[in-house]
Amino acid sequence: MLSKTVSPVCPCFWLLPLHCLVSLEEGLGARMNLKQARPSRARRMCPDLAERLSHRLDPPPKTGRSLVLGRCLTVGAAVIFLTLVLLASVLLQAILYPWFLGTISDVKTNAQVLESRVDNISALSSEVKRNRGGVEAAGVQVQMVNASLDHMRSQIRRLETGVKEANARIQTLTSSWEAVDKLNAQIPGLQRDLDKASALNAKVQGLQSSLENISKLLKQQNDILQAASQGWKYFRGNFYYFSRISKTWYSAEQFCMSRNSHLTSVTSESEQEFLYKMAGGLLYWIGLTKAGSEGDWYWVDDTPFNKVQSARFWIPGEPNNTGNNEHCANIKQSSLRSWNDASCDNTFLFICKRPYIPSEP
Length: 361
Description:
CATH class of the domain at 230-355: Alpha Beta
CATH superfamily of the domain at 230-355: Mannose-Binding Protein A, subunit A
Signal peptide: 1-29
Subcellular location: Membrane
Largest sheet: 8 strands, mixed
Radius of gyration: 83 Å
Order of helices and strands: HHHEEHEHEEHEEE
CATH architecture of the domain at 230-355: Roll
GO cellular component, one term: membrane
Main location: membrane
Structural class: alpha+beta
Coiled coil: 149-200
């Protein structure tokens, strides 16, 4: 560090005239001593030669007055010289003092600048030391970044490969889409053809259904004709057999069972009308009985007996159970109200009934 205190004027500058005076006096004294010392020295070195030279070199001795006068002249010259030197020094000081002040100010300024620079350099040195660790860490980070960049480059290469493959697939899909567009253009025509085909299919299904129905009807008709050839009558899903021989009620039931049937039951007015019309006023056993029961009528084929509905099918006043032995019913008249109770041991014609079951194809 440079010192911050600099003397404005060097102290030696004021002592310059005195120093010059002393130097002048010492110089004069030394010259005179030299002149005085020369003969003695020469005599010591070479006495003979010194003796001869002393007569030649030594001036003639001076008197006391001339010696005083010479000394006065010497002192006066010295004073004049010192005065001139003093004036020159004062003049030089007057000229050089502002320059010294400016120089000192510049030196101070430069010192301050240097000091600030030194401080800055110190700060920079500390900063450099601090940044050195950061640089090392940055170097490690750079290495990591480079590794990451390498990894990213490899990923980019893979992505580029994937993009190329995707582009190839896109081209393939584009070709496929073009084919799809062509097919889409054909769709309306195909749709019309499909609609026509659907309509035709519906017609075919209708015809198929009609054909099946016709087939069923033909089969049913065939079954009916076959049953009719055996003496059976067809009415609303049932076959009825009107016998030509008379039997007791029990024997008639046995005969019907041998033909996979039972004595007929009546479940509706239309069926009652069909039966009495086919009977033609003749007596026919039907499957209504109360034999073996506690006086309740029932159908022998296990059809539920509707007492209220069946009440309008009895002849008025029937059933009367004459002789307490009339436990079976028959059709007696050719009218809606045609039922009559009679003894089961009587022999009458009989009507068998079996449901129509389509035969196997």
